[in-house]
From TrEMBL:
This is ArsR/SmtB family transcription factor. Pfam families: HTH_20. GO terms for molecular function: DNA-binding transcription factor activity. PANTHER family: SLL0088 PROTEIN, TRANSCRIPTIONAL REGULATORY PROTEIN.
Length: 133
């Protein structure tokens, strides 16, 4: 689904969560949090081609979750702690918005429960006399 009118910050959050939506990329991120790893060392941990691992790393890099640095023949991958903090902030903002919505719904339901007792149930149910009445 494409949402029009998104700013760059929204698109960055989308890239972030698209990258995190894949279990392999989340695992790669966890491994890189422990310390920088070469792409070839990452590739050794997964039953996929080296090219597939490179593609996963590229998705993480485009999302800003990792950075790559060439040292000699190797590309070292390390987690960007600021990007992980941005993911946390985005989740916190979503949580706050949903909690506010739930609180508003709870308030409306409480107001409804405090209203006058009209015999319970909808009006059409109260007015129904049954088959004999």
């Amino acid at each position: 689904m494409v949402v029009y009118g998104m700013d760059e910050a929204d698109r960055a959050v989308d890239r972030l969560f698209q990258a995190l939506a894949d279990a392999t990329r989340r695992d790669m991120l966890r491994r890189c949090v422990r310390g920088e790893l070469s792409v070839s060392r990452l590739a050794a941990a997964y039953p996929m081609s080296f090219a597939a691992v490179q593609k996963h790393v590229t998705v993480l890099e485009r999302a800003g979750l990792v950075t790559k640095e060439r040292r000699g023949r190797e590309q070292l991958v390390r987690t960007d702690p600021d990007a992980v903090a941005r993911a946390r902030q985005a989740l916190d903002a979503l949580e706050s918005a949903w909690r506010a919505r739930v609180d508003r719904m709870s308030g409306l339901l409480a107001e409804d429960d405090d209203g006058p007792d009209t015999g319970g149930g909808p009006a059409h149910a109260r007015d129904w006399k049954g088959p004999d009445g």
